[in-house]
Design brief:
38% helix; alpha/beta; Arc Repressor Mutant, subunit A; 245 residues; binds calcium ion; 11 strands; Rossmann fold
């Protein structure tokens, strides 16, 4: 379930937003000031922040700028809310690092659409939509993994950690992820566990994918980490054709 932090000092608006987001399946935390928001972010990193521009004390703009300079929060998706419609505000907001921008009053449907779009772009692993890579399919909503063999989908049983790991790989295919990155993105950023733990779960994931002939999709990239690939060359059973001169 995606975690969304709503930073808004007007309690009626904060409540309205959170009720609608919860109804749409998000886990919502409300902060009514920049200071509260910082405490919330220090505690648990959300998947996305809905940030009001005008807050008592520090403004949302100052918070967005600060989060953008911190390594831990640099990639945090941020949607800014403002009561002012001037174009200059929009540019200032996007300059400060907001990923999107919404002017009050807005419909909750509009906010939901923007949240999903920003998550799709920046944190697809935080969304519940099913993902397919090659013959492999993962569905976070039903917690099912399947692999098509000769056109027939076959269910793959994986543990909870392997599921999250595979979901992250499938939402970021063909990219190499270091063990440290995987720990951050799959296990959570306040978790202090050894990088070797990643190897243990990758091994389990490959074992689960073995019976459906998809284990080769999880590649070890020497000295760099792991990657999910559907390149034909990755399959041990299908070597790349030799080039003739
Ligand atoms: Ca406000």
């Amino acid at each position: 379930m995606s975690r969304i932090l709503v930073v808004e000092d007007e309690s009626a608006i904060a409540e309205l937003i959170s009720i609608n987001l919860r109804h749409a399946g998000f886990d919502v935390t409300i902060a009514t000031s920049a200071e509260q928001a910082q405490v919330a972010v220090d505690g648990v990193l959300p998947d996305l922040i809905v940030l009001d521009w005008m807050l008592p004390g520090q403004t949302g703009l100052a918070m967005a700028k600060r989060w953008r300079t911190d390594v831990r929060t640099r990639e945090l998706p941020i949607i800014m809310l403002t009561a002012r419609a001037e174009e200059v505000d929009k540019i200032t907001g996007l300059d400060a690092g907001a990923d999107d921008y919404l002017t009050k009053p807005f419909s909750t449907q509009e906010l939901l659409a923007r949240i999903r779009a920003v998550l799709r772009r920046k944190a697809p692993e935080a969304l519940d939509s099913a993902v397919e890579v090659g013959t492999l399919r993962i569905d976070p909503a039903t917690r099912r993994v399947s692999c098509g063999i000769d056109g027939e989908p076959r269910e793959v049983k994986v543990g909870a950690t392997e599921f999250r790991l595979l979901h992250f790989f499938m939402t970021h295919p063909e990219r190499v992820h270091s063990r440290a990155q995987l720990l951050d993105r799959v296990w959570g950023d306040h978790v202090f566990i050894e990088e070797r733990t990643v190897d243990v779960h990758v091994k389990r994931l490959r074992e689960a994918l073995g019976p459906v002939q998809c284990a080769h999709m999880i590649e070890t990239v020497r000295g760099a980490g792991y990657r999910l690939t559907q390149q034909a060359g990755a399959a041990p059973t299908k070597p790349a054709p030799a080039l003739s001169a």
